[in-house]
Amino acid sequence: MALKYTEEQLNSLDRETLTRLFLSQQEQLENIDHTLQLVLEQMADLKRHRFGRSTEKHETEDQISFMEVDGKIVFFNESEAVAGEENAQEEPESVSRTSLIKVK
């Protein structure tokens, strides 16, 4: 911690001592300013890293998509479309009339 001088003490110092004191304080102030600038830059980088754009890419698989078909916007869900294709390829099960009657 730097020494604190009173007004009387500063008045009693000669010009050369006052000049050295002033120059040393000026150098300390420049060092503090430089350190503060570094801290502010680091804070800005941390904010950008925390709140900035995300580099993650989100997959749209099994998500609803929008497509334009014949000038109309259509909602398209890939999982439903794939399930629909699989069901269309399978042969429908034959259900007999007797299996539909409940037994009491």
Task: Give a structural overview.
It is a single chain. The chain has four helices and two strands. Strands 1-2 form a two-stranded antiparallel sheet. It has a domain at 9-48. It is rod-shaped. The chain has helices at residues 7-12, 15-51, 78-89, 97-100, and strands spanning 64-69, 72-77. Helix content is 57%, strand content 12%. It has 104 residues and is mainly alpha-helical.
Number of discrete helical segments:
4
Distance between the termini: 96 Å
Low-confidence runs: none
Helix content: 55-70%
Output the strand order for the largest sheet.
1-2
Q: What string gives the helices and strands in order?
A: HHEEHH
Number of strands: 2
Q: What percentage of the residues does DSSP assign to strands (E)?
A: 5-15%
Going by helix content, strand content and strand pairing, the class is mainly alpha
Overall, the morphology is rod-shaped
What Rg, in angstroms, do the CA atoms define?
39 Å
Let me know the largest β-sheet: 2 strands, antiparallel
Mean pLDDT: 76
